[in-house]
Amino acid sequence: MRTFPTIILTTVLLGGCVAPEVLKVVPVNEDVKWRYGNQLVSKETEGVTCELTFLRTTPDYFIYQVNVVNNSNKSLLVAPGLFYMIPASEGNNTFGVIKAIDPESHLLSLDKREARVKRNGPGIVLLSAAGLALGASIANADNESGTLFAEAADGLAQGFVAHTYNRQYELADIKNERDFWENKALRKTTLEPTYKVDGLVLFPRCNHCREMKLYIPLDELTFNFDYNLVKQ
Description:
There is one protein chain. The chain is of the alpha+beta class. It folds into two domains: 21-103 and 185-231, Immunoglobulin-like (Sandwich), CATH 2.60.40.1150; 106-182. Helix content is 38%, strand content 33%. It has three helices and twelve strands. It has a five-stranded antiparallel beta sheet, with no helix packed on it. Strand 3 (38-45) and strand 4 (48-57) form a beta hairpin. Helix 2 runs antiparallel to helix 3 (144-183). It is globular, with a radius of gyration of 25 Å.
C-alpha cells in the first residue's frame, strides 16, 4: 500500500494524472449512529449483529470498519474475501460486482513479492563485486581501456548502492503492508457464539459511481447496506 507522499510524487512525475475527487460516503435510510466522528449503521438478525462504519476514501480504496457480534447458538464464518458491493452511476448504470480485498490472498502475494525481491538481491551483489574487482585491476594500467573500465566499475558501484537502497525500501514497504493486513484488517475467522470480531475492510475505489449497496455474507445470513457518494 503506497503512502500519500509516494502517490503525490508519482502523480507529479507522470504529469498527466489528476488527483481523484474527494468523495463523502453517506448511509441511506438507515438508523445512523455516530462513533468518533464517523457514521455507524447496524443490522441484527437471528442473534447476529453486523455494524458498518465508513472511515475514508484513498486514491485506491473505500475503507470500512466492520464489527460482527455473534449472539446466536451456532458458529459463524466471517470471510472478508466474500464481501462485495454493487455500485451505480447517476444514470443508475451498474458497474458490476466489486469484491473486497481478501487479506489472505493479499498476504500470500506479499510473501511472493518479498521472496522475489530477496532472490534478486544476491545476483546484483556478485555482479557488482566482480565488476569492481575487474575495474580496479585494469584501472592500474596506464591506458584508455583502464580508464573506461574504471568508469564502468564506478557506475556499477553507484548502481549497486541505488539498487541496495531500493531493495531495502521495498522490503520495508512490504513489512509495513504486511503489518496492516495481519493486524488491522478483518481476517477470515470462525466466530463462535458469544464472541465478536472487528477490523478494516477495503474495497477497490469506484470513481464514477454515486450509489452503492454493500453485501456482507456471513454463512447463510447476508447483510446489505445502502450508501450515496457525494462529491466534496
